[in-house]
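Hey team,

Filing this mostly as a record. A colleague (T.K.) asked me to run one chain through the structure pipeline before their review meeting, and I want the input and output archived in the tracker in case anyone asks later how it was produced. No errors, nothing strange. Just documentation.

Input sequence:
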Amino acid sequence: MSQLGSRVSRRSVLQLASLTAASVALGQLGSTGPSSPSSGGKIKLGFDNFSIRTLGWKAPQLLEYAAALRVDVILFSDLDVYENHSEPYLKEIKAKANGLGIEIHAGTGSICPSSNTFTNRFGTPEEHLALTLRVAKALGSPVARCYQGNAADRQSEGGIAARIQDTVKVCKSVRQQARDAGVKIAIENHAGDMQAWELVTLVEEAGRDYVGVTMDSGNATWTLEDPMQNLEILGPYAATTGIRDSAIWESPEGASVQWTAMGEGDIDFRAYMRRYAELCPNVPVVLEIISGMTRSYPYLKPEFWKPYQKVRAHEFAKFIALAKQGKPRKAFKLPEGKDKKLAEQEYQKDQLERSLRYCRQVLGLGVKTS
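Output structure:
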């Protein structure tokens, strides 16, 4: 396969951009097919509690909100969402969810001991992951969502490859516990840490029988990937998801990315969901909406590529194609004279609820009727 090494020159990137533009003009890249809503409407729909993080709600209140929104699934993506981790308490949460007809997916943060994102609040990485598996089993969750780290880990000693190996070791340490619990460890492509092919390497080395993927379409754009390409690679490994839209546009030094509510970015989610239904039809669409901020990627500067040991040029070309079609967006700004926390809470709820409406009305997602 074609690869673009870490020593990428400005000239080579410009040449690639030129070729990409020509391909777009010929219709060879970025083809999304017909724009009708996806059929069926039987894929479960839900949200990650991180979408409304500033509310600070615990599990019971989040379940009530999820029931009011008539979603099928909720992902509790952190261990702090519970008052405690005792079996009796977790059984109460499970019973409440069952009564409301909501499936719980359980999760936590970093399990990589050498990542800058890891915290020892829950013990060693092995103890942390073991706890998450126990919580997931008690709640009836089929997955234990977690992640390796973030983009800064690419610049650590040994790079992302070393962090992948460290994470594989942690997963292997709890292999039997995961199998006994019937819970799949679902590692997310998170905050610019791993590209899709790198995450697949991790899953295959750890063992696909008990390790899968939390497929995040928004985080794909933070690793210079087209979410459609990310879906092609990670779809067969997906156990749960973190879905949101992205706006991507060219800048003088490369490109900029801003996450948006569903249907308000540059990703053709009609085409995405048609392919999603083919690759992972039994995996719920869990929205993780994080709108408003802009992140820059100055890939025309040679030093940008130092943390990237390998970049697959044919995949990067598709990201460039998206950037060439996008237009700049303004970052979200809090209204003047309004309480900051309250404004953020209202904004996050608005972005999530409008995303759920789009998913139901345009994409035909969700088992429950709205």
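Quick notes for T.K.: The radius of gyration is 20 Å. The chain has twelve helices and 13 strands.
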